[in-house]
Predict the 3D structure of the following.
Amino acid sequence: MKQPNTEAITHLRNRIHIIIEGTDTRLGKLFDIVLLIAILTSVGVVMLDSVLFVRLQYGTIFFYAEWFFTILFTLEYLLRLFSAPNRFRYVFSFFGVVDLLSILPSYLSLIFGGVQYLIVIRILRLLRVFRVLKLKAYMQQAGFLASALRTSQQKITVFFLSLVLLVTIYGSIVYVVEGPENGFTSIPISIYWAVVTLTTVGYGDISPKTPLGQAIATMVMITGYAVIAVPTGIFTSELTRNMRPQLNPVTCPNCGKFGHAVGAEFCDRCGHALHV
Amino acid sequence: MKQPNTEAITHLRNRIHIIIEGTDTRLGKLFDIVLLIAILTSVGVVMLDSVLFVRLQYGTIFFYAEWFFTILFTLEYLLRLFSAPNRFRYVFSFFGVVDLLSILPSYLSLIFGGVQYLIVIRILRLLRVFRVLKLKAYMQQAGFLASALRTSQQKITVFFLSLVLLVTIYGSIVYVVEGPENGFTSIPISIYWAVVTLTTVGYGDISPKTPLGQAIATMVMITGYAVIAVPTGIFTSELTRNMRPQLNPVTCPNCGKFGHAVGAEFCDRCGHALHV
Amino acid sequence: MKQPNTEAITHLRNRIHIIIEGTDTRLGKLFDIVLLIAILTSVGVVMLDSVLFVRLQYGTIFFYAEWFFTILFTLEYLLRLFSAPNRFRYVFSFFGVVDLLSILPSYLSLIFGGVQYLIVIRILRLLRVFRVLKLKAYMQQAGFLASALRTSQQKITVFFLSLVLLVTIYGSIVYVVEGPENGFTSIPISIYWAVVTLTTVGYGDISPKTPLGQAIATMVMITGYAVIAVPTGIFTSELTRNMRPQLNPVTCPNCGKFGHAVGAEFCDRCGHALHV
Amino acid sequence: MKQPNTEAITHLRNRIHIIIEGTDTRLGKLFDIVLLIAILTSVGVVMLDSVLFVRLQYGTIFFYAEWFFTILFTLEYLLRLFSAPNRFRYVFSFFGVVDLLSILPSYLSLIFGGVQYLIVIRILRLLRVFRVLKLKAYMQQAGFLASALRTSQQKITVFFLSLVLLVTIYGSIVYVVEGPENGFTSIPISIYWAVVTLTTVGYGDISPKTPLGQAIATMVMITGYAVIAVPTGIFTSELTRNMRPQLNPVTCPNCGKFGHAVGAEFCDRCGHALHV
C-alpha cells in the first residue's frame, strides 16, 4: 500500500506519524496536549448540551462547537489513517475503532436525531493521551491488574456462566410464583429483577408481594450476598500470588537453570554449586 | 435388571448409551450439538412466550414448539432410562432429576396453568452438554472453585446460621418498634426486611419511619456492610492456600534436608542427587 | 451460698445440673432435644401470631401456647438457677441473661402490649442446644472465625470510628445542600441517609434532588463502594495468616525452645543441634 | 516571626503550647478532656437544633449554646495561633484548617442562613483529642491501614480512573436509549444513575423502563458487582504482604546462610553464632 510515486509523500507521512504518535518531540507533546484539551472540552460540551435549561440558552453555541470538534477529529482521523504504517491494522485496532466511533455519531445524527450524545465515547481516547502525563508508573500498575485479571479469566468465566444459569432459573420461578399482576410481567423482566436483586442493587421498581415470592427473594439476596466472595477471592488470591517474593535471580554456572529457591547453595537440577 | 432374553437388546442399549453419553464418536458429538441447540431454542421459546405482546402474535407457534420440544425431551429421557447401565442410579442422579424436571412442567400445565414456564430449568441441562465444547480447562477451574467452597463449607455454615439468628432477632425488634402501621405487618415480613437490609439490597418497599426504627436499621446496615467480609475472607484465604506452591516431601540421602521444590533432581543444599 | 441443712438437696442439685448442662447421660440428651423442640415451636408460634389473618383464626390457641412455653421456660430458668454451682455467675453469664430475656417479655406484655414478640430472642438459646447435635467441628470453625475477628478487633474499631466521622460530616453537608424541602428534614435523618448510601443499601425513601446534592451522593457512594475493601482486607489477611503452615513442632534438647523453622538443623537461640 | 520585645511573651507562648499540645502535664490533660466534651456537646447541640420540633422548643437555648462554643473555639484558635512555633505552618496544616472550618460557618451564617450546620466538621477535631484516651495501639493500627492504602494508591487511582470512564460511557448510552421521558433527563443525571447502579446502591428514583435500557442496566450491575473485587483484592494483598513475617538480612559468618528468623542468635543450619 506504500505510495510509489514520490519520496516526498513518504517523508511527510513519517513526519506526521512522529508528531501524532510520538511524545518525544516538542511538536508531538504539543499535539497531545491540544488533543487532551479538545477531547475534554468536547465531552464537556456534549454533557452540558444534554441539560435542557442550558441547551435552551446556549444551544447554538453548542451546536457549532460540536461540529467544530467533529471536523477537527475527522481531520485528525484522516491524518492518522494517512500516516499509519499499516492502515488496515490501524483501522481495526482498539484505538482505530474508538477514533472512528468518536466522530461517527455526529454524522449519524443528521439521519437519526439524538445519537450525537454517543460521541462521549471519545472520552476513551484519553487513554491514549495519558502517556503524555508521565503516567508510566500508573500504566505499570494497570498492567499488573490486567495480568491478574487475565490469569483468573477462566475462573471468572465459569463464575459468570453459573450466575447466568442461576439468574435464569430464579427469574422463571419468581415469574411463575408472582405473576404479571405483581409487576413480574414476563420471564425476561423477572430475570432482570433477579439480576437487580442478586447484585444487591435493589431498585425497588419491581419487588415480590406474595410470601412465597419474598421467601424466594430472600434466597436470591443471600446467594448474591455470599457469592460476591467468589470473584473477590479469585482476584485477591491471584494478586497475592503475584506479589509473593520471587526466586533468587541466580543462574547455574553448569546447566544454566535460572531462578533458585532463596538460600539454595546447589542447583536443584544438576547439583552444581551455584556460588563458585 | 439386565434383560436376559436377547443379546440384541443389550447391544442396542450399549450403542445408544455410547451415542448419548459419549463424545468421541461422530454420532455422539452430533447428538450433543443437536441437544445443545434444542435446549437453547426451547428455553428461548418459553421466555418469548412469557412476553405478552409476543405471545398475542405468535402464541400458537409457541404452543406447538413447546410441545414439540417436550415430546423430544421425553423421548430422550426414555432412551436414557432404557440405555442406563443402572436405571435406579440414573433416575436419582443430579442430571436424572434435572432431565425429569425439564419435561414434567409441560405435562403438569395440563392440570395447573402457568406451570409450564418452569421448564426453563432445562437450562441446567446445558451443564452436561458443555463437555462437547472442549471446556475441559474451564471444568478444571470450576472444580478448583468447588473444592475451595467444600473445604470452607463448615465455616460458611456457621456464618449462615449466625446470619439467620441475627436476622430473626433484628426483624422481631423492628417489628415491635415500627409496627404494622409503618409497613412492618408481621414478624416474617420484618425478617424479610432485615434480609433486604442486611444484604444491602434495599428495595425500599418497606423502610423504617420512626427515629428508633431508623437507628436499628443503621445497625442492621452496618452489620451487613461489615459482615460481608466474613464469607469473602473465608473463601479467599482458602483459595490462596490452595494456590501456594507445595514442596515435595523428599529427604536428601546425603545431608537429610527435607522438602524440595517440585521437579528438583538434586538437593539445593549439598548438591547430592535426590533420587538414587 | 451452699445450702447447709441437708445433703439431699446438694445431691438433687447435682443431679439436675448433670441433666440440664450435661449431654452424656440419656436424660441429659432427652432434655436437650425436648428443649430444642420447645424453643423452635415457641418461636414459630410467636411468628405466626404476628401475622394478622392467622392470629384472627388461631389467636386463642397461640395465646395459651405462648403462656405454656413461658411457664415451661420459667420453670427451667428456676431449675438452672437452683442447680447452678455459682448462681451469681450464672445470672450474669451470656446464657443466663438470654434465659431471662426469653421469658421476661411475656410478663412485661401484661403491662405494655406488643412487647411479647420480643421473646423471639429465645432463638439465641439454640446456641446452647447446638452441642447436642454433634456440632463440635462446626464450633471449632466458629472459634477459628471468632479468633480472627478478635485479633483484628483494633483495626476494625479504627475503621468504624472513621466511618462514624465520615457519615456525620457527609450527612451534615447534604443537609445544608438539600434541606428539609427535599426530604432531608434534620441532621440525624441526613446521617441516616448517609449510612443508607454508604453501605450501598439505597432504600430510595430519601434521595438527593439538587445537582450539588447528587454530586455529593456520588462521592458517598464511591466511598462506600471502595471502603468495603477495608474490613474485607483486614479479616482476610488475618484468616490467611492463621492458616499459614506452622513452625516445626521440635523442642531444642539444650535450651528447650519449641517451634523451629521448617528445615532447621540447629536451634537458632542456643546453636545446639536439634536432631541428635 | 518571633516576637523580639520581651522574654515574658516567649515564656507565655511556650507554656500555652505545652498545655494545648502536650498531654503529659495535668493541665494539658484537663485541657484535652474539656475540649473533648466541648466538641461533643457542640456537635450534639447542632444536630438537635436541626430537628424542627426540638428547635421550636429549645431554639433560643441552642442559639446561645452555639455562640458560646463558637466564641470558645475562636479563643482556642487564637491561642493556638499565638503559641504555635511556626504560625504559617499551623494555619495550613490539616488540623489548622479543620480548626478554622470549625468556627467559620457560625460567622458566615450571619450572612448566609443555614450554613451554621456545617460546624459539625468540628467533629474531625476529635481525631486530635483521641490521643488523651491512651489510643496508642489503635493509632498504630490506623497507621498500618494507612500505609497499606498508600502503597496501593497507584493501583487504586488506575481503578478509579477506569470507573470514571466506564460510568461516563454507560451513562451516555443509557441517556440515548432511555431519554428524558423515562427520567434520564440529561447526561450528568444519567451518569449519576450509572454510579448509583454500579456501586449497587440502587435508590430506584431513576430506573430504566425500556427492554434495551434494562439490558444495559444489567451489564452495569454485573460490572459493579464483579468490579468490587478489584479494590478489595488490591488492599487485601497489600495487607497480607505487610503481615508476612520478615526474615532478618543476616549472613551466617560460618556457613554463609543468608536470611534468619527475627530474633535468631545462632544459624539454624550450622549452629554458628550469628552476631560475633
In short: Chain C touches chain B through 53 residues (CB under 8 Å).
